[in-house]
Design a protein that fits this description.
heterotrimer; A alpha/beta (149); B mainly alpha (263); C alpha/beta (261); A: 149 residues; alpha/beta; 2 domains; eight-stranded mixed β-sheet; 3 helices; 8 strands; 27% helix; 32% strand; extended; C: 261 residues; Rossmann fold; four-stranded antiparallel β-sheet; 9 helices; 41% helix; 25% strand; globular
Chain lengths: 149, 263, 261
Amino acid sequence: MKKNTLEMIVGLFMVAGFLAFGYLALRLGEVSFLTRGSTYTINAQFNNVSGVKQGAAVQVAGVVVGEVVKMWLGEKGYAHLALRIDNSLKVPIDSIASVKSQGIIGDKFIQLSLGGDEKVFANGGTIRDTESALDIESIISKFAFGSAK
Amino acid sequence: MQQNPINKLGNTGLYVLEDLGRMGLYLHKALRGACRRPFRFTELIRQIHFIGASSSAVIFFTALSTGMVLGLQGYYSLQKFGAEGMLGSAVSLTLILELGPVLTALMVAGRAGSAMCAELGIMRISEQIDALDCMAIDPFRYLISPKFLATLISVPLLTAIFDVVGIAGGYIVGVNLKGVNPGSFIEGMQTSVTNHDIRLGLIKSFVFALLVVWICTGRGFFVRVIRGAGFGAESVSRVTTQAVVLSSISVLIFDYLLTAVLL
Amino acid sequence: MMDVAIEFRDVVKLFVSLDGRKQTVLDHVSFTIPVGKTTVIAGGSGQGKSVTLKLVLGLMRADEGKIFVNGKDITDIGGRELEDLRTGFGVLFQGSALFDSMTVFENVALPLRERTKKTEEEIKKQVIETLTQLELAGHEDKYPAQLSGGMQKRVGLARALQLNPEMMLFDEPTTGLDPVMTQEIYHLFARTQALVGYTSVIVSHDIPKVLNLADHVIILNDGKADVFESPEEIQWSGKEHIREFVKTTMGQIYQSHLMEK
């Protein structure tokens, strides 16, 4: 009997630990193994993506539809982002991608404004119609040094 | 024999080198012992009970209070920028990356590490470890490896519990007491925490677990040959203190190193 | 010609203290220990008695010289060979070295459980038998801390006997026991040896009493060993330091004998 309670307590502890770990992994981390195969990737070309991090959200009208999976510097100094997007969302080729932030110091995310064209981006397509990150420092310095009227 | 300072320095250097080498061999033997048959499964369960399950309560309260303090402090700092919505992400990232692994390892070092060190120290000075050797029972397989395995299993699980309870503590203070929007708390948490962060937290807790069990059991095991430990009961109490201090310091140092390398 | 169980050939053991000073504990020591007899290794404290035992068991390494057990050189062996060597020894430690988190039964059963493939039932039978022989029946479920010093020694002896050792090593077997208990323990040793027939090596500073048991005596002094074929020989020794040793240790003995009466 004594031995059984010992095993029960250890069992409870292990279950609690694994549940906690599961919560962290499934609720907070991206559940990549659940969604793999049901996404596709399109690229976007920006002048400036300052503040965007790998894993940043991609939103349409405030709804998260994907994430930034890769960023690199392309030819002519353009910033390129690879966006992993849910299969169910079709992105028309006249859509606009812009870098936005949540609140003034919040995380940066990519906002897609869907266009009306009938043609949609296929896997690997590139959005060239983009709005770059708002450069807060330059705005503040404009205010501070009075060049903003 | 007269000892000049240079002589002394050389001796100390040699001693430190020897000590490191000893601990390295010890680690090797402990890990090898874990692969030897017969495997002591009941002992492993007993050790997980002692190191993991019995530490749950202290981890729970530490985590809860840490999370609540983080929630409160974070709230006051973020409020100044009107960024209370970031509270969830601030609390969860702090816990997962830093405080969860570090505080759990420190608690385990203080609670279980000291006990393991004292146990092995007493077994050494009362010749119980020699007795095992003389019965041709490998003390590593029999005594030490189960402690290693149990710590390596328990500490990451305790860390996960710490993280979740801490986040709950932050949520209680932020949402229930300070009126942060629950949606933005959860949302902020989910968007800012990535798998990479969780993996880093996990790697940290594994490394810390290894450091704690290695240093604590090793100090106890070598109680006879540690410089300045003295003899008898006093030597055990000294090496136990030394083990807790050393393992805590190495946890903090490795925390910085791992963060620098992996973040 | 007697069979030799253990032979030390020119063994040197140095200790380097933490501040770098060297101390020679055994200085080119040579002696042999015969099979089936009782050999007493005597000497003052710090003269290397326990070191000698640890060298035999491979718990320490000699700095120079060779040690043979049953004709086999054990000076540099390790791993499997060392395990096999130790299986042939039973050791009774100074403080009994019982595992204090285990009951008497578990302590005695440990070598059988870990080193043999016996079933739990066979183990139980053998353990109870040994405990009964050593007058410990009924104490199986007690913990070592609940036993008297003499009983702890007997449990230690029971544990050491489980694997039928060819050789029993006793490290200061009577430390911490009162004179009556000491006598009793020595009688017990003599009885079990007659029963099992092992070679017995007793390390002790308890000279007068232990000499009653001895066939052979080795006295360690200042890193040197003096070997005597019988206890009586010691008293007739012409060597100055032996006479000195006899005077100091035996003197006390005679006094303590008087006090006991």
